[in-house]
Design brief:
Blueprint: H1 22-36, H2 45-59, H3 64-73, H4 75-85, H5 97-113, E1 117-122, H6 128-140, H7 142-146, E2 148-154, H8 157-165, E3 167-169, H9 170-173, H10 178-184, E4 185-187, E5 192-195, H11 197-200, E6 203-207, E7 220-225, H12 234-247, E8 248-256, E9 269-273, E10 276-279
Parallel strand pairs: 1-2, 1-7, 2-6, 7-8
Antiparallel strand pairs: 3-5, 4-5, 8-10, 9-10
Bound molecules: S-adenosylmethionine (SAM).
């Protein structure tokens, strides 16, 4: 089904810009919370108005009320709505302290245990995070990398499609340290480069809403869940932290974003250092 309705008879390009009422804003916030756990607070009206205006235009609709009617009966558009309201910002080697810890401590530990390694990048956005994990493993311990499985999941089908394509602009790839860039990217055009098969093959992608039960069998040695819990409220964070604990091997690690904190909540995880927890 096409999501571009701009030829719809309801669409009038000369009409004044639609205005988001408080009632519709509250409805959008409730829906987003129910579907993704993301909390949008008062003060975000302008952001919602500007992001949803793009969908109104794409759907050829003249009011937010009409858009909400469409969303209530059209699951494809509902997913699009959640998509435009979520923040997908990410980059290669973001928050490098986590990759330093992998290289200096975790990988040597896994090597000495001679174990197969399972890593989960939960909320992986467009793939920069799991590919950084793959590159770190390949650079540090290629033999271990070949035995490692990296699962990368996200709520958004749009970002997952980009992640699977593994093709990024030169500006995005510039975040990768020059010393390793040439080994993990190949040019696809003057503007874009693709992650090489060597790194791509370590990662598998799947759509997963973190609010839903986790369908994976087997535990992980390391879970990355960075820069998403910051959008959730405390009860959602606590529930998720407890469920992550259950998905970790004893002694396994959870990495969260450096601007996030699981605070003092009783979740069965032990604080190790900023943005790093272990299963105790
Ligand atoms: C800011 S990005 C973080 C990407 C990466 N982890 C990083 O730190 O660079 C947040 C991601 O969380 C995803 N997300 C939001 N709510 C989610 C949910 N309930 N389940 C799974 N993913 C979710 C969004 O689609 C987005 O791609």
């Amino acid at each position: 089904m096409s999501s571009d309705y701009s030829t719809s008879p309801q669409f009038d390009p000369m009409a004044p810009a639609a205005k988001l009422s408080q009632a519709v804003f509250v409805k959008v916030c409730d829906l987003l919370y129910k579907l993704s756990g993301i909390v949008l607070k008062e003060g975000k009206e302008e952001l919602v108005q500007s992001r949803l205006s793009k969908r109104l235009k794409a759907c050829g609709l003249g009011s937010f009320e009409a858009y909400m009617d469409l969303v209530s009966s059209n699951k494809v558009e509902l997913a699009q709505m959640v998509d435009v309201l979520t923040t997908n910002k990410t980059n290669f080697f973001r928050e490098p302290a986590h990759f330093d810890l992998m290289r200096e401590t975790l990988i040597p530990q896994w090597l000495s245990q001679n174990t197969e390694v399972r890593i989960w990048s939960a909320a992986c956005s467009s793939g920069e995070e799991p590919y950084t994990i793959a590159m770190t493993l390949l650079e540090t311990a290629p033999a271990l990398a070949r035995k490692t499985k990296i699962l990368a999941t996200d709520l958004s089908a749009v970002v997952l499609e980009k992640a699977r394509k593994a093709t990024y602009t030169n500006e995005i790839v510039a975040d990768v340290p020059a010393s390793i860039r040439s080994r993990y990217f190949e040019p696809v055009s003057a503007r874009e480069q693709r992650v090489t098969a060597k790194a791509r093959d370590l990662v598998s992608f799947a759509r997963l809403n973190l609010l839903d039960p986790f369908p994976m069998r087997g535990r992980f040695n390391l879970i990355f869940c960075r820069n998403v819990m910051i959008y959730f409220d405390k009860p959602t964070q606590l529930g998720l932290a407890r469920r992550f604990r259950e998905m970790l091997e004893p002694g396994g690690f959870l990495f969260i974003g450096h601007s996030e904190s699981l605070g003092q909540i009783d979740n069965g995880l032990q604080y190790e250092r900023p943005a790093v927890y272990t299963r105790c």
